[in-house]
UniProtKB/TrEMBL annotation:
Residues 17-131 form the PIN domain. InterPro entries: PIN-like_dom_sf, PIN_dom. CDD domains: PIN_VapC-like. It comes from Sphingomonas lenta. SUPFAM superfamilies: PIN domain-like (SSF88723). It holds the Pfam family PIN. It comes from the Bacteria. This is VapC toxin family PIN domain ribonuclease.
Length: 161
């Protein structure tokens, strides 16, 4: 039987997670304004006791290794820091078919659906990403693009400065 991860932020009304793209911008100094925004976002995310999925950390390792000019040891160190800083939501095997069904129902990429499925299963209310439909609520999880200026008030409420 699958159990929810005990979230440090569980006493908050809202628990937030984020997608790989934000972590990539966080380490990519060449990403200009996206990098600066991601750095500030990660500070606020840590203060708000955000959570990360196992999949997002794995995707970060893969994408950063392929596309970043950072040394592989630096990438590994960043991943270890993420793992030690944030609660990590595992991917239980029984969620894989649920994610597949979600991907079919909402015409999502399977890996995006898996992030949403794991988030929902752990009581996460909001996913920060620029890769899905901004403002949509899918299976009870709000999709919010943190780089969209129209979302500033919502983001400030979720992640106080």
């Amino acid at each position: 039987m699958r159990q929810k991860v005990q979230l440090r932020g569980a006493h908050h009304l809202t628990v937030v997670t984020l997608d790989t793209n934000i972590l990539v911008y966080y380490v990519d100094a060449d990403a200009g304004e996206r990098h600066a925004s991601a750095v500030g976002l990660m500070r606020r995310f840590a203060s708000a006791q955000g959570v990360l999925s196992q999949q997002v950390v794995g995707e970060f390792l893969n994408v950063a290794r392929r596309s970043s000019h950072l040394d592989e040891d630096v990438i590994r160190t960043i991943a270890v820091e993420l793992i030690s800083t944030f609660p990590i939501l595992p991917t239980p095997l029984d969620l894989l078919p649920e994610a597949f069904d979600l991907s079919r129902r909402h015409k999502l990429q399977y890996w995006d659906a898996l992030i949403l499925t794991v988030a929902r299963a752990n009581g996460v209310a909001t996913l920060l990403t620029e890769d899905m439909q901004d403002g949509a609520t899918i299976d009870g999880v709000l999709i919010l693009d943190p780089f969209n200026p129209a979302n500033r008030a919502r983001l400030d409420a979720l992640l106080p400065a």
